[in-house]
Protein: SpoIIE family protein phosphatase
Amino acid sequence: MMDGGLSKKPVGLRSFRAKFILVVGGAVLFDLLVSGGLALWNVQRLSRDATLEVGQGLEAASQEYIRTYADSTAAQVSLLLKQVHNDVDTLAGVLQAQIDNPARNSDVGAAIARTSPASVILSYDEKGKWSQNAPGSASVVSVWGYLLGQDHQPKPDIQRDLETSAVLDLVAPSLLDHGASKLQMYYIGPRERPIFRTAPYTDQAQTFDRLYPGHNEADFWDFFFPGLYESWQGWARDPKTRPVADDITQTAPYTDAITGKLIVSFFHPLWTADRKDVAGTAGADITLDQLAQIVENVKVAQSGFGFLAMSDGNVVAINGTGEKTLGLRSASDAGGAGALTGLQRSLKGSSQPAIAKLALDREQGIQHLLLQQDGNEVPYIAIVKKLPATSLWVSGPVRQEAMLLGVVVPEREIEASLYAAQAKISEATNRIVLYQILAILMSLLIVTIAVFAASKRITSGISALAGAAKRIQAQDYSVRVAITSKDEVGAAGEAFNRMAEQISYHTENLEQLVEERTAQIEDAKEEISMLNAQLERENRRLGTELAVAERIQLMVLPLQQELEEFEDIEIAAYMRPAEEVGGDYYDVLKHGRRLKIGIGDVTGHGLESGVLMLMVQSVARALQEAGNTDAVEFLSNLNSALFKNIVRTRIDKHLTLAFLDYDGKEMILSGQHEEVVIVRANGEIQRIDTMDLGIPIGLEADISAFIKTREIAFEKGDLILLHTDGVTEAENDAGELFGIERLCREALRLKDQSAEKVVSEIVATLMLFIGSQKIYDDITLLAVRHR
Structure:
């Protein structure tokens, strides 16, 4: 192993070190001088250009800032309104779902009446001539005098509304605690039954008596909201008459009867189940403070401010400074006996001529205004943004409203920023020039020292590597390089030493290594051959098992003569597994004069799905032969037997399953599966959803509580189609699904054909649709036709 040292030689002009110093040092020195000089020249030029152009640039930036600020504030206001809209939509969705499902509506109302009687039990007030529930409930509900009977009790239909509207107690508290901050949420009944339920509880009717004399004898909707109910009824007749696409209607700010605060109300009309009339409304109130806080917090420059106005110019939110600057005057606007009242503070009535003439019908970008202050005309910049349009009720028909958000800032404050910016630019320029000169001088000193130091360190290591490489070339593999540094050159020396050791080792042991690798390759080849033979035997075994299972599955399907032995109906069927063994099930079972037709789909396909399908066939046959004629009991017993087998065999499968029971007169449908398609003799198509008739088989030990039945009319010439999702979810080469609509069209086209013809034609159309696309799911189709 060599000592790694090299004889010291003087640094000549032809040495690597001398060349390194000249090239690297010269390049770095030139780069520093050029970049430093350019930097100083650019700084001076930048200063001159900035000073000349900063006026226009800062003015444009300030105007863009004002636009951005206005956009941001408008977005905050819109977001607050959207949050309230979402909460009202949620409450309306719950109440609308109750209206659309009368049975569930009654069940929920009865349950709440039992568990929370304080919500529906009312007390009659002799003085006010109305009834109201006592405190202790999550909401207060008021029933006006003309809705009470002679015994001062709510009329029967009013009592039902009391119970069903109590669902507000379940939903409103959570909505009040979360989302946008709301003052209260409420439900108001339809015109003929306008009960008023509000959360949280307040002295509602007492307050109305004090503030609105005569309301208890008047029609509620006409008294408080003239024209609103009629507008909604117009929407029900023609949805295109809505001012905007959303159903939500908001009011202009008005004084709340209960809290005395300026509020905005948001109504979502509720519709009758047939969507032809109004069934009341869901609503929420927010205080104007929530909108005002966003607008009053606007601060641009030192004294810039924002304002929020209606499209008619009435300002609903502005801070004190802005109100004085714009010269606004306030006036109370009182309507009729029941009209809601609000604050009138109109831009059109401003004492500032420029504000009174301000264009509000369209956005005009930045506007320059001259406002009178202390006898002088002071220039201002203003921008007005329109918020998204909403439906607005004031008094009369609902109309479209787009509120306006304005931002106003004095121009002098913009110019003050210009002068400050110019002074800062000049100061920064002088500071940068001084720092740049010092940096160049310091860099020159550091580079000079670094080049000399690095040249000695780098070139010595390189020279040592060059000498050692020459000895390797001469086949002296014992050479080693002394490592004197831990940088990249040192890493190269370590790599060189490892390479020399490996070359020496492999040169001496190459023949032995070749023999060892050859023996290892032979052993690996023998092991691969054994594994291939084992894999081939396993494939043959699995193939045999699948063939047997497929044969058994086909053997238990109904025979053709079984399908043809019924006098008044004809039945045809088709089944195609996606693999050797499918998971679809269909069967036709006859016992006496009773006929049971079943169809099902096991999750997945393959051997386990096929086994579960065979279990279904066996259990169904046994139950039918045992004379089990009750459809609910039949499905419940079948599920119980299958559930126990699934637990025992640890098959992680279940299936959808439905049966048609026919005794020559009635056709009864039970169980959950795909939609049943019926083509009537007159060409009418009926699709029956089975989701509410049961749950998948094999999920629970007892499903009797979930099973329901439905009687289906089955007359001469009618055609019933049963199918699995392998039909409707089959894909073509473009990824398009065959779909239930296409299946219905084909069934209608073939309605006068025999059941066998219907099945064969639909299957042919399906296969043509699929084309070369792979079939991913089992396909099963049954046609039952009344002769």
About this structure: The first helix runs from residue 16 to 100. Residues 1-10, 332-341 have pLDDT under 50 and may be disordered.
